[in-house]
C-alpha cells in the first residue's frame, strides 16, 4: 500500500498538442467522406427497390406506373445530389479553398 502513490505518480500523460489543424476545408472533406458513401448506398437501394417493384408488378399498369415513377424520382434525386456536391466544390474552388 505504501508503494501505490509512487506507482500512480509515475504516469506522465502526454501533453495536449497545440497544433491541431482544424479548418473549413478539413471539416468539409470530413463531411464528404461520411456523407458520400451513405448517399451512394441510398441511391443503390432506391434503384434496387424500383427494380423489385417492376418485377412484382407483373404487367399491372398501375404498379408499373408506380415503379416507373420510383425510377424517375430516383434519377431526379441522383441529379440533385450530384448538383449539390458539384456546387459546393465549385464554390470552394472559386473562393480559393483548394481541390478535394
Compact overview of the structure:
The protein is an all-alpha fold and 100 residues long. 74% of the residues lie in helices and 0% in strands.
SSE blueprint:
Blueprint: H1 4-9, H2 24-57, H3 61-94
Helix pairs in contact: 2-3
What would you say this structure looks like, in words?
The chain has one domain. It is 74% helix and 0% strand. The chain is built from 3 helices and no strands. The chain has helices spanning 4-9, 24-57, 61-94.
The tally of strands reads 0
Strand content: under 5%
Q: Could you say how many structural domains there are in total?
A: 1
Q: Spell the H/E element sequence.
A: HHH
Shape: elongated
Helix content: over 70%
The major sheet is characterized as:
none
> Using only CA atoms, what is the Rg?
26 Å
Unreliable segments of 5+ consecutive residues: none
Termini separation comes to 57 Å
